[in-house]
Amino acid sequence: MQARSRSPLRSAGWWGFAFAMPAILLFLAFSLWPILNTFYLSLFKYDLLTPKEWVGVRNFARLPADQVFLRSLKATAVYVLGTYIPVWGISLALAMALNAKIKLRGLLRTLYFIPPMMSMVVVSVIWKLMFHHDGLLNTMLMQPLLGHPVDWLTDERWAPVAIILMSIWKETGFYMVVFLAGLQSISSQLYEAARIDGAGGWALFRHITLPMLKPTFAFVTIISLIQGLQAFIPQWVMADGGPNGATTSIALLIYRMAFVWLKMGPAAAVAVILFVLVGAVTLIQWRLQRAAS
Amino acid sequence: MRNQIRERIGLLLLYLVLIAGAVIVITPLLYAFATSLKTSAEVFAVPVRWLPTVAHFDNYPAALKQGPFGRYFFNSLFVATGVTLLNLLTCSLAGYSFAKHRYHGRDILFGFVLATMMVPIASMVIPLFLVVKAAGWLNSYWGLIIPAGTSALGIFLMRQNILAIPDDLIAAARIDGCGELAIYWRIVLPLIGPALSSLAIFIFMWNWDSFLWPMVVATRDQYWTLPIGIAGFESSYGTNYPQMMAVANMAMAPVLVVFFILQRNFIEAMALSGIKE
Question: Which of A9, A105, B60, B103 could, after both became Cys, cross-link A13 (CB 3.0–4.6 A)?
Answer without folding.
Answer: B103
